[in-house]
Amino acid sequence: MQWALLSGLTEAERDEVVALGRRRSFARNEVVCHLGDPADSFHLVERGRLGVKVALPSGDEAMINVLGPGGSFGELALVRADGHRTATIVALEEATTLAVPGSTFRMLCRRKPEFQAAVTEMLADRVDELSRLLLEGMYFTFDRRLQLCLTRLAAAYGSGAGTVSIPLTQSQLAAMTGGTRPTVNLALQKLSEQGIVRLTRGRIEITDLRRLQAKVRT
Predict the structure, then answer these.
(1) Angle between helices 181-193 and 142-157 (to 10 degrees)
(2) I need a labelling partner for 207 at 20 to 30 A (CA). Which of 12, 76, 96, 215 fits?
């Protein structure tokens, strides 16, 4: 398994970090950590996909990202002064992670400039991602936001050509796009009538990814 966060380390150093990790398994919909929890580790995703949720002023939650194998989370909490989790992480399907102690993270930051650079780049990417989501929410129609969301999910769940099956509910898509379940359903029905998606219970199947990608480029 290749993790972007460890890309600057040698193979021996990566093996050493992985050996220090404690393997944890999560059932579908199980919470890995809650927003505000004290952090004592960061996680490397081995298997499955996990949703990143943040709290809204209304008290609701928005899912801002989906992490898959090769991803990681928990780094930001370890560099914060208060050391608390900045998001809730929930398993969207059966998932496995390696929980690496915070002491290992801090040691790598001190001794390995390449690791520190990878952490900085990853955190910068996440700021860019949040900025992009903010702009989409302010200036794009809901249909376009949903189409963009589906293309990103296709990249996360796809494995090449053909139909891409996304095992998320319409309520979960609503949490990712700032809509409601009825607005998501209406937008999906339009895409279904165009032959771009197929709706099944508990999942959305993208049957024509090229047309979907073409729509978001126009």
Answers:
(1) 80
(2) 96
The residues, any chain, with a CB within 8 Å of residue 154's CB and separated by 6 or more, are 164, 166, 206, 209, 212
Q: In what order do the strands lie in the sheet with 203-206?
A: 164-166, 203-206, 197-200
Q: If we measure between CA atoms, which residue out of 122, 85, 78 comes closest to residue 100?
A: 78
Its pTM stands at 0.88
Instruction: Phi first, then psi: give them for residue 205, nearest 5 degrees.
Output: -110, 120
Q: How many CB atoms lie within 10 A of CB 9?
A: 18
Three-class SS of residue 25?
strand
SS3 162: coil
- Residue with token string 């990712």: 176
177-194 pLDDT per residue, tens: 989 999 999 999 999 999
Phi, psi at 135, each rounded to 5°: -65, -40
Residue tagged 């780094």 (tokens): 75
